[in-house]
Amino acid sequence: MRLQLALNVTDLQASIDYYQRLFGVDVAKRKPGYANFEVAEPPLKLVLFETTDAADRLNHLGVETFSDADVLAAAEKQREAGLDVDLQLKEDCCFAQQNKAVTHAPDGTMWEWYHKLEDLDNFAGTAKPRCC
Fold this sequence. Notes:
The protein has an eight-stranded mixed beta sheet, with helices on one face. It contains two helices and eight strands. It has helices at residues 12-23, 68-80; strands at 2-9, 29-31, 34-39, 44-50, 58-65, 86-93, 96-104, 110-119.
């Protein structure tokens, strides 16, 4: 597993340049208005969404898992803890198809535990750039 941090940025290319230097890794996926990095150390999936107004820099948080079993276990653990969990299977989101468990903190911050099933060519989601 690795932590996911999704940020809203106003200048995608400048942000890509910065994070490449900061973490010493190349972009893993680049699409119009979107980029992500897979950082080994620290274990991090960094996602950038380009927007004209990035006053709210945080888009969402998540934990990328590498199996559906981890997603289901996270959903069950969250339910047992009394949290409302939205289990989304084969959800198209952010240039990928995913299985995920989504919950929201009291302030509205979205957390997702997800497993990427496959890459997609097109951005999928209902409210770009906050697709998830």
